[in-house]
Amino acid sequence: MGSEHVAAAQPLLIGLLLLWSSYSKFRDPEQADRTALPRLVGESRAKPAYQTLAAIEALIALALLAPPSWAIEAVAAAALAVGFTGFLVYSKVVVPEASCGCAGKSAKPVGYRAIARALLLLATAAVATTATAGWWSAGPALGVLVVEAAVFVMLSAELDRYWLLPIRRFRIRLSHPYAGTASSTAPLAATQRRVLLSPAYRAVDGMLRSDIHDYWDDEDWRYLSYFARYDGRRATAVFAVPHGDTTPESVRVAVVDETSGLTLYRPTVLATTG
Amino acid sequence: MTTTMDRRSLLSRAALGATGLVAATALGSLAPETAFAAGSQFADAGQPDPNFAEGLITGRNQDLLQVQGSDGRMHRIQLTGVTSVWKLRPTTIDQAKIGDGLYARGVLLPDGVLAAEAVWVNIVNLTVAITSIARSGVQFDHHGQKVVGHVQSGTTAAVYNGTPAVSDLSMLKVGRHAQVIGAWRPGTNEIDIATIYTSN
């Protein structure tokens, strides 16, 4: 298996990659709006430019895949790869939020992986220009393509969900980084939700002026205080939420004047207001 | 500290009904006009709400904040002893620092200062996909943007399938969509997670 065979094998990989890229551009031309194309060629010309590029990709791909093998096909692919690399670098510098639009749906902005992939495509195309025979005569050198294809997959953000996320899911199933976070103390968000759903909250809702100001636990209860206005004066509304009883009616409330320490209002028969 | 303890114990006793009720007129005062007599101005149609402000804190003089709104407007916001401040959790007014972003609700005073009743510092509400979970943080994809969420033990809560919040984060899964309420760390793409809503 000489370097000549390896070079001869490249057009197969390049051709398949360009077909994939071309197909996804034809399937969803609206992706053009998310790339840097509108900035480069103008809003109205972005979609036609995107589709023209797809057509060029398809043409080069088919020329590479079908006999006879001419060096000019690989040169065209190399030129295309140079164009891709330049466009991606332009995207990253000028329109950093633009997506690559290379292949498949991805809202991800152009990253180093996309540029590395374009450079790899350029490298394979450059190797292919030295080929003297068609890929069908490459023989065992086609095995090299498996390794190259794997690298292409790893550099493709569009394909992460097919291999990277499953690997991460599997790793987390073995040992979850947050396995020990469960605790018997209810988080504040849970208490707040119980307060919001309680008749006690409905009874004083119109008086509340602030968000939660303070909260604390004491024996069987958790307390939440809000600033309120009662009869035109400043007051504090304090809710008592029992740890044990989870019924909405178990939440109690009082409106307190903190300067005098007197309770101004305490709804009593809460169940009927619910 | 003692005053906080005294205050809390007074409020606790009041909430549980251990203190006497003073106002016999309590029921009469429940009329809506009483509840809304606090003096808030109502917004004119098409005009910005006068009782609300948002932006980045560009200056702080004692408890008066200088805030630059995202629409270019400048706000002056007065924090008081009766302002609630949220910064990942309910906290104290000294936590609003220069460089922080905030939302404030309160009463606009005649001199143009907003007397804040509630302030939310650096609060963010993101719809994301979970792309990776590690001890150092949870990685999110927020419409193509990478955001790192940090778990704060004792504060971070998770809501699975709409059930009540729990502190157990071990049911978070890679690939799931989630909504995250958190506190942004200014100048970074990192947040501290307050509550994460997802499915399990």
Automatic annotation (TrEMBL), chain A:
GO terms for biological process: methylamine metabolic process. It comes from Kribbella rubisoli. This is Methylamine utilization protein MauE. The chain crosses the membrane at residues 6-23, 49-68, 74-93, 114-136, 142-164. It holds the Pfam family MauE. It is a multi-pass membrane protein. Keywords: Membrane, Transmembrane, Transmembrane helix. InterPro entries: Methylamine_util_MauE. GO terms for cellular component: membrane. It is found in: Membrane. Residues 6-128 form the Methylamine utilisation protein MauE domain. Its main location: membrane.
UniProtKB/TrEMBL annotation, chain B:
Keywords: Signal. It comes from the Bacteria. InterPro entries: TAT_signal. Residues 1-37 form the signal peptide. This is Cell wall protein. The lineage of its organism: Bacteria, Bacillati, Actinomycetota, Actinomycetes, Propionibacteriales.
